[in-house]
Automatic annotation (TrEMBL):
Pfam family of the protein (one): CHASE2
Ranges where the Guanylate cyclase domain occurs: 497-629
Alphabetical UniProt keywords: Membrane, Transmembrane, Transmembrane helix
Protein name: Adenylate/guanylate cyclase domain-containing protein
Source species: Variovorax beijingensis
Gene3D superfamilies: Nucleotide cyclase (3.30.70.1230)
Amino acid sequence: MTAMRRHGLRIAITLLPVLLALAHATGLWRLDAIDRLDHLIYDTRLRATMPGTLDPRIVIVDVDDASLTRQGQWPWSRDKLARLTRELTGRQQAAALGFDVMFVEPDRSAGLDKLRQIARGPLREMPGLAAEIDRLAPALDNDAIFAAAMQGQRVALGYYFTRTEKPGAKGQLPPAPVLQAEAFPPGRGYATAWNGFGASLPVLADAAPAAGFLNTLVMSNGDGVIRAVPLIARYEGDRARPGYYESLGLAVYRLASGTPPVRPVFAPSGPGAAAPPLQSLLVGGLRIPVNEAASMQVPFRGPGGAQGGSFRYVSAGDVLEGQLAPGELKDRIVLVGATAPGLQDLRATPVGAAFPGVEVHANIVSAMLDHRLLAVPDYAPGYEVLSVLAAGLVLALGLSLLPAPRAVVLAVATLAALVGVNAWLYKHHNLVLPLASALAMAALAFAFNMGWGYFVESRARRGLVRLFGTYVPPQLVNEMLVTPGRYSMRAESKHMTVMFCDMRNFTRLSEQMAPAELQAFLNNVFNRLTSVISTHRGTVDKYMGDCVMAFWGAPIDTPDHATLAVRAALDMAEAVRDINKIHRTTGRPEISVGIGINSGVMSVGDMGSAARRSYTVVGDAVNLASRLEGLSVHYGVEIVASGATRELAPGFVWQELDSVLVKGRAQAVAVFTPLGATTEAEAQTPAALQQSAQLQRWAEVLAAYRRQDWAMGRNLLDPLLAADAKKVLYQLYAQRLASMALRPQDPEWDGATRFETK
C-alpha cells in the first residue's frame, strides 16, 4: 500500500487510457479510430486463417468478358438464359441454381410487343396477321420461355430491397416470407427494415421456387467493406406480405438442403426484461450465429476471382456453347453471376478490393455447408469491458511499481495475452471479439506511464544518483532508484554495523617502494578490498592512509548488516592472502590486515563543513570499532568483532578472545574472532567436530581464567598449546596465567583487560 500511495499520481495517469477505452466499449463515446483498428485486426486475422482451398461443391458460372464477346452485350435475352438454365439443371444436373442477377424489366428483345403494335396499327386490316402473331407468341415470349425452363427446378432468383420516403415496388416478392413478423417479439428491430423492392417479373417469380435478396452492404461498417451480410431482412411495405425474407445465399443453401425451415433463436433474458436480442438462426439442424442486424460474418475462403482458388469458375459462354461434358457439374451448387468490370458487380471485402459479388454468396453457402461459422456473441461488449479493465489494472499497477526492464516485459506480456486469448477464441471457438480498444489502451497506458516515469520520476532518480553515487555501491544505488523518495542525505540514527580495516607492515613496505609504485600498489589493494565490500552490499565511508572504513545498514535498510560485514571481513582477509602469494613470487614483503567490527546505534548522514562534506557514520559504536581494529595485532588475529556483532551474526564459528576495556569506555566489551561460516552439514564433519571440541575447551580456559583458577586454566590450555603452539592467542594466555599465578587473588578482579592506548 505504501508503494501504491507513493506512485498514486503515476497510477492515475496510466488509468486515463483505461477510462477512454471503457467509454468506447460501453458506447458512451465511440471512437472511429478504434473501430477502424478493430476492422483492420478482423481483416488481418481473417486473411491469416482462410483455408485457401478449393470448395468443389460450388461452381460459379461467370458472365465474364469472354462470354460478352461471344454471346453479345448484357443483358442477354431471356431465351438465352433459358438455354443456360436448361443446360445447368438438365444436362449438367446441378443440385441447385442461384441467379445473382435481377429480372425486373420484361424482355422485349424478340419484338413481340412491336409486332402486336403493328398488327393493331397500320396492318390491322391484313387478314390472319393477329392470329399468326398469337400463334407465334409462345416462341417469341422470352420471359415465358425462361419461366418454363425454371418450372419444377431448384432455382433461386435474386432481388433487392430499398427504403425511400415514397415506397416503390417493381416485380413480385416470394409469395410468403421465410419468417412471419409474429415470429419475433415486439419492442425490438431484429433485422434491417425496408419498404420497397425491385424483384423479378411475376411470371418469373411464380416459376422459381425460391428467391433471395442481394443486399450485401447493410453491415458495411462505414468503410464500404463487406464483412457481414444479412441473412434475413424485414419488409414493411404494402406491396407484398410483411415479414422477414431470406437472402440469396440462405435461399440457395436451403434449396440444396431440401428447404429446411428457419427459426429464430434468442439470447436468454430474465422475466420482465425487454425483448431479447436475436442470437442465431436455426436452419434445420444448422445454427447460424448472427448479430443484432441478423447478419452473418462472412468467413471468406480465400482471394476472389477465377484465379483465387476458392471456387471453380466456368465461363457462361462455355456453358451456352455446350463445351462442358454432360454431368460435369452434377450435384454441384451453381451460382450465376458477373465479374465483367462493366457490369459493376465487384465489391470491397477484407480479402480483396474488387471481389466478385457472386462469390460473396458462394462463401456464405460454403460456410453453411462446412458449419464454418463466425459469431459475434451478444456478450462481446462485456468481454471488451472486462479485457480493458483487467489489462488496464495490471498495467497501471505493474508499470508503476516495477523497474523499467520488468515493466517493458509486463507490457509485452499483457499485449501478448490480449492478442493470444482473442486469437485462441477466434481460432478454436469461431468467436469474433473486439480487441482494438484493449490494445490501444495498453499502448497508451505504456506510453503515458513510461513518459511520466522518464520526465517526472527520473528527475528524482537522477538527483539520488548525484547524492549517493559517489558513496554507495552501484547495486545499492540501483535498488534505491526503485523508491528514490525514501532516501535523503539527512542525518538519522540507525542500528548498523561498521568496519575498520588497517594494513599492517605498511610503513616498512612503503620505504621499499618508489612513490609511483606505492601508489599503484595501494590502488590495487584498495580496489580488491572495495570490491569485496561492495559485493557484500557495504558502503565505503573513506580511505585514511592505509585504512579503509565501511559500514552496512545505510542508506538502504539491511536487516542482516552484521552477517554481511563479517562475510566481507573474512573475504577481505582471504584477498590479502592472495596478494601475499604474489608478493612471495616477486620477493616483496608480505602484508597483513587488522579488521575491527562493531554493531550498534550510530548516526549516519551528510556531515562536514561547507567546504567539504561526506556521507558518513559517527558515534560511540563507530569509535569502538576503531579501537577493536587496533586489538587484532595484540591477539594475533585478523578480525576482532564485538559481542553485539556476534549476536547478530550467528551463522559463523566464533572464538571468544577476551573481555576488554578500551580507552574512552567505562564498560568492558566481549570480543570475538570469526573462524569461518558454518552450516548444519559442515558442523558434522570430523574437522568441524574437532574444532568444536577445541572451542569448548577454550571456553573452559577462559572460565577458569576469569575465576582466577590459574592452575586449572593452565592445565586446560596445555593441550591446546600442544595442538597449535604458534597460535598467538594461546601463547598470550599462557603468559597471563603464568604471571597471574605469582600474584595473590584480587577480590575485585573482573577478568577484563584494559587498553589505555588507541
